[in-house]
Specification:
The structure is a homodimer. The first copy, chain A, starts with a strand and ends in a 16-residue tail after the last helix. In chain A, helix 4 links the parallel strand 3 (78-83) and strand 4. Chain A is of the alpha/beta class. The relative contact order of chain A is 0.18. Chain A has helices at residues 15-20, 31-48, 61-72, 86-97, 115-124, 146-156, 205-213, 223-230, 241-257, 259-279, 306-317, 343-356, and strands spanning 4-5, 53-58, 78-83, 101-106, 130-134, 136-137, 142-143, 160-164, 183-187, 198-203, 295-299, 319-320, 322-323, 332-336. In chain A, strands 2-10-9-8-5-3-4 form a 7-stranded mixed β-sheet, with helices on both faces. A 3-stranded antiparallel β-sheet of chain A has the order 11-14-13, covered by helices on one side. Chain A has 2 domains: 4-9 and 258-360, Aspartate Aminotransferase, domain 1 (Alpha-Beta Complex), CATH 3.90.1150.10; 15-256, Type I PLP-dependent aspartate aminotransferase-like (Major domain) (Aspartate Aminotransferase, domain 2), CATH 3.40.640. In chain A, helix 3 (61-72) packs across helix 4 (86-97), helix 5 runs parallel beside helix 6 and helix 10 runs parallel beside helix 12 (343-356). Chains A and B meet through helix 3, helix 4 and helix 9 of A and helix 3, helix 4, helix 9 and strand 13 of B.
Chain lengths: 372, 372
């Protein structure tokens, strides 16, 4: 049985993308590489809907989050962090490690941030220089309203806005220029349908101004070096060439599908997932009004051992789901539906859950638990 | 004509290695990944000839160099840097960026460091805490005598010893434990016959003691996090899974070949390369007594445009060589012969040079320029 890998990254890659990754190595300082990095960068800019500089880093998404912090802030800077889960906490942790003075606004688990809370915090402390925020909180399956947040952060207060869009951009609407987002990050193993190993980061003019003044030391993640090298079609350090081959292929597929169609597909499979989960008698973790179209978090049913459920799904039904992270470990499980995902993939998850749940002590609703 | 990629990384990958990289994605927090990361780590430890902790980072080799610095030093620490070329300079640059107080010893271009110079420098300043050194200087094709350097640095002075072994270890002898090397770095695209995207770093007990006291901020490259996660068969951040697949396959090939055989093969192809270059009437850049067995640097012949020569070799003979870096740009070219390289590959380079050189204004020695 082919494995139905439904975690929020690494996501499954189309065969063409995997095959593209197996091409022979080339000189990363030569003309073929130059053509590829220019093409990939341009396509990523189109999918970020931005004319800002954009860089491909050899790192996981966390590396791009670190790049966002170390390139724009200085020790002692006051920053407002919007955290609604594990990845919000990670952004805070990175900022604190580098000496940034972090104030935090949060929302209850499963809820998005209310932009009004950001407004209050920014009013209360005019010294706050920047806002760091997670667009799509992968740990709870909640999408923050970045457009609304930007209207406050940029429109009312004109602060620097750094966005972790790792599990959102390219899959759900995130218009970097229209929303005036200064720094935006993502990673190849998310909606981009490519293997992990590359991270992306876009930098606005305002972000470059901050970069020129930033005093956090940086070397590997120095975006000024990335900019210098990209001008001649290179990266400062040897890049993950085979992952770039794959990304080059997957970006072409996304471009052919068209961004609106990609968004619609994600909205459809996400809705099918939420419907299916509810039909099984399971409870969604996230408030449906802000539920993510890339990952769905589900309460582990009372009395069920979450780890046992996931192990059973994998070993007997070839369905791989993700557990809860940090304090949510065991309390929820997560279905990834970003990138290469169809309605049939989601139906497969529901079918497997319908069969597996009774074996771990939960009787799903409906006959056979079919989700539609 | 198949391309003969003879740059010092990315190096060509065997077909099996490229194909392995095209396997479907898996959960990086699941049992298959755990088995793979344990297997890869164990094999790397065998090839590093060490029982020290060893970590696989998603980054290029420069990322591992940064990890070496930020995990063991503190701002203001006095460090002796041994620099004999571009990569020695890079190590210095990283240390300086993070506030380390760097003293430098050098050797003339094409020469290795004399351990006596290190002895003098360490005697002159007892406050020096650590020595950072490049094992194999890829920019000039010179191999430093790390065993001899360690006898001074560790044997006589008992300092921390950080080694950039990116283009040496796994290809030429570098015995981490026997030579008492505290931190040793490498990268997947060098002798390991895998695509770029992963870096390796080993940490001795002494290095961990330094880590506990180090005050340089770090997050993405924090090796304490890497250690915590590796204990359960994971990496802290999503790793470059497809590159790991490839590395898993290439390490098996290296293990089957046997480390001594790998070293002998590198010594043979390197000697063939140096002989071939001399037979063509070209001049080796490095002192032959310390010439590298992984990369050979060659003086651009007088009157020849180095860039034109490399472009001609690539476009008409499908041989890809590297130019000089930094201040050596145009003054030399380099033949990589690390990793997946045979005598036939080297002969192919010599044949192409024999045909190309007359077309850029240099008449090679010997009839037709055959190198043997």
């Amino acid at each position: 049985m082919p494995v139905n890998l439904r975690i929020p990254g690494p996501t499954p890659c189309p065969d063409e993308v995997l095959e593209a990754g197996a091409q022979p190595m080339i000189n990363h300082r030569g003309p073929e590489f130059r053509d590829m990095i220019f093409r990939v960068t341009k396509r990523l800019q189109e999918l970020f809907v931005t004319k800002n500089d954009l860089f491909v880093l050899t790192a996981s998404g966390t590396g791009a989050m670190e790049a966002a912090i170390v390139n724009t802030l200085s020790p002692g800077d006051k920053v407002l962090a919007v955290s609604i889960g594990e990845f919000g906490e990670r952004f805070i942790q990175i900022a604190k490690v580098y000496g940034v003075n972090v104030q935090v606004v949060t929302a209850p688990p499963g809820k998005a941030i209310d932009p009004q809370d950001i407004r209050k915090a920014l009013r209360a402390d005019p010294e706050i220089k920047a806002v760091i925020v997670t667009h799509n909180e992968t740990s709870t399956g909640v999408t923050n309203d970045i457009a609304g947040i930007s209207r406050v952060v940029k429109g009312e207060f004109d602060k620097l806005l750094l966005v972790d869009a790792i599990s959102s951009i390219g899959s759900i609407p995130c218009s970097v220029d229209a929303w005036d987002l200064d720094v935006v990050t993502s990673g190849s193993q998310k909606g981009w349908m490519a293997p992990p190993g590359l991270a992306f980061i876009s930098m606005s003019k305002r972000a470059w101004q901050a970069q020129a003044q930033s005093k956090i030391p940086r070397f590997y993640f120095d975006l000024a070096a990335a900019k210098r090298y990209l001008e001649r079609g290179q990266t400062p350090w040897t890049p993950a060439v085979s992952v770039l081959y794959s990304l080059d292929a997957s970006l072409e597929m996304l471009a052919n599908e068209g961004l609106e169609n990609v968004f619609n597909r994600h909205a459809q499979v996400a809705q099918a997932c939420r419907n299916g989960i509810k039909k099984l008698g399971l409870k969604l973790f996230a408030d449906e009004a802000v539920a993510s179209n890339t990952v769905t978090a589900v309460h582990t049913p009372p009395g069920v051992d979450g780890a046992k459920l996931l192990a059973l799904l994998e070993s007997e039904y070839s369905v791989v789901l993700a557990g809860g992270q940090g304090s949510l470990s065991g309390k929820l499980f997560r279905v990834g539906h970003l990138g290469y995902c169809s309605l049939a993939d989601i139906q497969g998850v529901m079918d497997a859950l319908a069969l597996a749940l009774p074996r771990v002590g939960f009787t799903p609703a409906g006959v056979g638990g079919r989700s539609r």
